Amino acid sequence: MLPLKVIHHICMVIIIPLDLSTSCFKGAGCNAAEFEALVPASVTTLSGSCVTVPCSFTLEEEYKDKLLPECIPTWKKDKITISTTFKGNLTAYNCTTTLNDVLEDNVQYYLRIDCGKPLRYDFSVYPVTIQIKGKCNGTPVELGCSAPSYCDTHPPTVTWTPALGLSTQLQQNDTVTSTLTFNASHLHHGNNVSCTAAYYIPSGNKTVTSTRYQLSISYAPRNTSAVGSPCLPAREGGCLNLTCTSHANPAVSEVTWYRIHGEHILKIGTGSSLSIQLWNGNNVFFCEVRNDFGTEKSNVYKIDIQSKLIQNRKIIIIILYALEVVPQPKP
Ligand SMILES: *[C@@H]1O[C@H](CO)[C@@H](O)[C@H](O)[C@H]1NC(C)=O
Ligand SMILES: *[C@@H]1O[C@H](CO)[C@@H](O)[C@H](O)[C@H]1NC(C)=O
Ligand SMILES: *[C@@H]1O[C@H](CO)[C@@H](O)[C@H](O)[C@H]1NC(C)=O
Ligand SMILES: *[C@@H]1O[C@H](CO)[C@@H](O)[C@H](O)[C@H]1NC(C)=O
Ligand SMILES: *[C@@H]1O[C@H](CO)[C@@H](O)[C@H](O)[C@H]1NC(C)=O
Ligand SMILES: *[C@@H]1O[C@H](CO)[C@@H](O)[C@H](O)[C@H]1NC(C)=O
Ligand SMILES: *[C@@H]1O[C@H](CO)[C@@H](O)[C@H](O)[C@H]1NC(C)=O
Ligand SMILES: *[C@@H]1O[C@H](CO)[C@@H](O)[C@H](O)[C@H]1NC(C)=O
Hints:
Elements lengths: L4 E7 L24 E3 L3 E4 L3 E5 L2 E3 L13 E6 L2 E2 L2 E3 L10 E6 L4 E8 L5 E3 L5 E5 L7 E9 L8 E5 L4 E7 L2 E9 L8 E9 L5 E9 L4 E12 L8 E11 L4 E8 L2 E7 L2 E5 L3 E11 L2 E4 L3 E5 L1 H19 L6
Parallel strand pairs: 3-12
Antiparallel strand pairs: 1-13, 2-5, 4-9, 6-7, 6-10, 8-9, 10-11, 10-12, 13-16, 14-17, 15-16, 17-18, 19-20, 20-23, 21-22, 21-24, 24-25, 24-26
């Protein structure tokens, strides 16, 4: 029985920063006298993760004194309230909120403030669009781990192995929560991280409990490579088997092959392997792969079929060979 649990595993988001210097809202002493919400037009995240939307707002002058700490901020999608965690401070006109379990791409969400009558307002003309496509790679990931604290004066010490990044420990009531923040990279994918709580008991005995967690880091395709293997001898009309490989999580869902012919790029097929016919001259190919997080083009694979040139080379080699083996006349 372990008292530790991973409380979240979030690939945090690319947040488009709010430029507060050019914005005007009442909390900052401006004279805007309208209902306005200031949110980024769009924010990118990963499917199933949460996303924090920076937000501020203004009210019409006559409603200003109705804005009390008891007011309830919610967020809606198509008039339906969604699951959120409010992070801001309404009375300071800060409506920053974390939207939980975001699943759909390109959906608009808007703020609603309910202070009871008469101040009930939907900021539906100032929505934020959540786009699902952020890459985890290189963005901060947070892992949280909490352990019960049985004795306030000797809270447990929570540590992470390996120490992938910075961790901060917070004690709240009877629980200690440690948050590990690190920059996710594809190299972390599949790694096992442990969270350990060490309790120091007055007797001097130390007890330790821990849990392990396997990281799943999503990333766009990397190291995409195209190779060909011609049916020998390589000749015009002969076969060429092309294979496209890539590292991606989740695995690539689409592989497209292209042939470069002079100025033109022709789509020639799909699938990780493809068998095609060689043309006379330069045969140039590449593949392009896709997963939910992005696309990548491979290197260019080239094979030159010029039968005449090959024969000429053979002749030259034979001549050179002949010259070498012919004994030099002695002086
Ligand atoms: C609003 O609240 C959030 C969360 O507490 C904070 O990060 C942000 O800096 C605040 N914004 C302003 C303009 O004070
Ligand atoms: C919220 O903002 C108001 C007004 O600026 C301030 O008096 C109050 O202390 C803030 N509350 C919190 C929890 O920060
Ligand atoms: C801590 O305990 C107090 C009183 O029992 C409770 O009101 C508060 O919500 C608790 N805080 C957290 C973060 O659980
Ligand atoms: C993550 O990367 C940023 C920018 O490269 C850097 O400033 C920050 O310190 C890194 N964070 C961690 C926990 O390594
Ligand atoms: C993490 O643990 C799992 C299950 O025990 C194991 O299959 C996997 O190989 C481990 N990963 C690494 C990188 O050690
Ligand atoms: C400390 O642990 C040892 C070994 O587990 C045990 O023999 C001893 O009784 C413990 N001491 C106390 C005060 O609990
Ligand atoms: C790509 O290849 C390089 C060098 O072979 C390797 O270090 C790296 O881990 C590979 N990337 C992935 C995502 O497999
Ligand atoms: C190319 O692919 C075909 C069909 O999969 C196979 O029969 C053939 O042996 C392959 N040729 C080479 C050179 O790999």
